[in-house]
């Protein structure tokens, strides 16, 4: 069963929601039969990358908040992240456009490493103060998860995967997605935002049970493999 997740690399609730889903999956007996697909969503496609500006300063300016208000709001998010084992550092988070990061995730997906790339980018932005729109930084992060240096550079120096990023965004609009994270389970159920843990657990179980019922109705068996003897006599 597939779970598709629309999210942005600079969205704090996307990282928190990722951990919540992972928690639900860790206790799910059929987690090995769940496929996760990461979808691109840019909260601000026109964002200008500015390494000299941190997220606290940017939020205060763009939202019209005082620094005191901004720190109070972000501190609440920091505390929420801590409950999921995450350390957020908004004072050092670099304001950056995320298109290139999303293109890199699509490249990683083509090598079966989309989830690893997503995690590495989220950590780099929220915890390590890295500029996730910087080519050298993206290349280094990609190499850390096992992607080839030359391939990463080729992608970043071209417009490869821009169509995929745009298609994900278009698809989200067609589905009525207005904010992220947005989790779609088996194209039937959706979870919007970093909901309480029980929402993830209950929706996962409900989706899985219906998924099994549909497969049975179509004569498709869900197989759990173990030691067998084959028809040619091999055991």
**Strand segment tally:** 6
Q: Segments where pLDDT lies below 50 for 5+ residues?
A: 221-226
Helix content: 40-55%
Number of domains: 1
Strand content: 5-15%
Which sequence of SSEs, written as H and E, runs from N to C? EHEEHHEHHHHHEEH
Strand order of the largest sheet: 2-1-5-6
Main β sheet profile: 4 strands, mixed
CATH superfamily: Glutaredoxin
CATH class reads Alpha Beta
Mean pLDDT equals 93
Helix-and-strand structural type? alpha+beta
Named CATH topology:
Glutaredoxin
Shape: globular
Distance between the termini: 30 Å
**Radius of gyration using CA atoms only:** 20 Å
Give me the CATH architecture, please: 3-Layer(aba) Sandwich
Number of helices: 9
Could you explain the architecture of this structure?
The protein has 235 residues and is α+β, with helices and mostly antiparallel strands. It has nine helices and six strands; from the N terminus they run E-H-E-E-H-H-E-H-H-H-H-H-E-E-H. The strands form two sheets. The protein has a four-stranded mixed sheet with strand order 2-1-5-6, with helices on both faces. A two-stranded antiparallel ribbon has the order 3-4. Strand 5 and strand 6 form a beta hairpin. Helix 2 crosses helix 3 and helix 4 (99-109) packs antiparallel against helix 5. It is globular, with a radius of gyration of 20 Å.
